[in-house]
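Q: My labmate handed me this sequence with no annotations at all. I'd like to see what the chain might look like in three dimensions before we decide whether it's worth expressing. Could you predict it?
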Amino acid sequence: MNKTVVITGASRGIGRQTAIDFAKLGYNVVVGYNRDEKNALNLIKELRCFNSNIICLKADISIDSEARGLILSAIDEFGHIDVLVNNAGISQQKLFSDITKLEWDKMFNTNIGGCFACTQEAVKDMLKRKNGKIINISSIWGISGAACEVHYSASKAAIIGFTRSLAKELGPSGIQVNCVAPGVVNTDMNKHLSSDSINDLIDQTPMQRLGTPEDISNAILFLSSEKSDFITGQVISPNGGFVI
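A: Here is what I predict for the chain of 244 residues:
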């Protein structure tokens, strides 16, 4: 029986590449998306050449019922979930003094609230089988913090605490929970940055380049594989040495 992976925020960037790489390995792939239906459907067409067991499901994970509905629909379709990749998230650059309560709540409802709801629903299935792998996507800013991104950094730091605590709780049940904290990656999320800002970030990176979605997907696939069976509660940060 094929293993099943659910990836939130899979219509583009890191999530998209991760979906492609899991499909190549023969997984049943659930592509979660919110607004970008066109890219999600195009991805499904692309993945069909690797594997026919691919579906896309729309959900705004900042809404608890939709996040849980995504997981339940995946289980209805494939019967089980082996791997959950909590990748969906939002970001915003803004002075702390200008952040509104609405913006703060939206950041946390999406980045950690969605992670909570999807994971809690998926764990119900994993506990029945005493098996499962959960990979939460944080950020280097969740480790070190970033000026003008207090709400984003705080939400990503919360994901790290969530990962470590849940790993201790679920370890005896055979479920592993780990975190990937990417550095600066060349995706749409960073398209708003000027060329000078990009060059400055590259200069600050010992490896002298931005990360790629493939760099992050490689870490996710490792944590999803049998090669990581004795790893849980850990934060792996593919960042080219930006944060050490």
